[in-house]
Amino acid sequence: MSKQLTFVYNDKEYTLEFTRATVRQMENNGFVATDIETKPMTVLPDLFRGAFLAHHRFEKAGIVDEIYSKMTNKPALIEALSDMYNEPIKALLDEPEQGNVEWTPNW
Amino acid sequence: MDSELVSDSESDTGRKGRKPSSLTEYFEKLCPFYINAGMTYDQYWYGDATIVKAYRKAYHMQMENKNFYLWLQGRYFYDALCCVAPILRAFSKAKKPIAYHEQPYELNTEYSEVRRKQREKESDNKARQMMEAFATQFNQKFKSKKGG
Question: Do A1 and B48 touch (CB under 8 A)?
């Protein structure tokens, strides 16, 4: 099951998700994923709009922007949306059956 | 390539004048593979992004099965050749080919377990019949000795 973000706004239930088709559509419209690292706050609104394409393609842009302006905890939202955006590509990459690189977090 | 360093991947961002590779290009490149693995075009592009994992695993399992069946076919063919080889040899005195397997090879499946039990039962029955025949014969001999 792919990662989805759900919420209710004005009594309407929304499900945000990325599919390969929506990622393609976003890239065709000029979206560059690597910009998330350099200018996250500029990219975030586009990423947020793109997440509506899978299930709410015909939602008015004004409503989407309105929802975006009311979303809380934007840093966590960036993280969640980037995770979701990366999922269609991550699923295509082979996971190693058994890795041999050990790692340690510093916190 | 093995000699490529992690830092070399930056060349794909356009620093060396190459066009940056997009996710779309990668998706489009892999689309035929997944269609060949049994996914529909709509499932690949519009469906749950993670379904590809199951299809990829299933595809590899299918390849393993196919490989096994081809190998098995080769073994049966080899056995058949070995059975007829004596009569095909020039100046051979053999007039009949060696009999081919009565049963197919036993695979490690549920069905082969049923077949194994059936064979064991048949073998047990045969042994019991032989034992009974021997006992009857012995008893008759014993009776005749006693009587005589």
Answer: yes
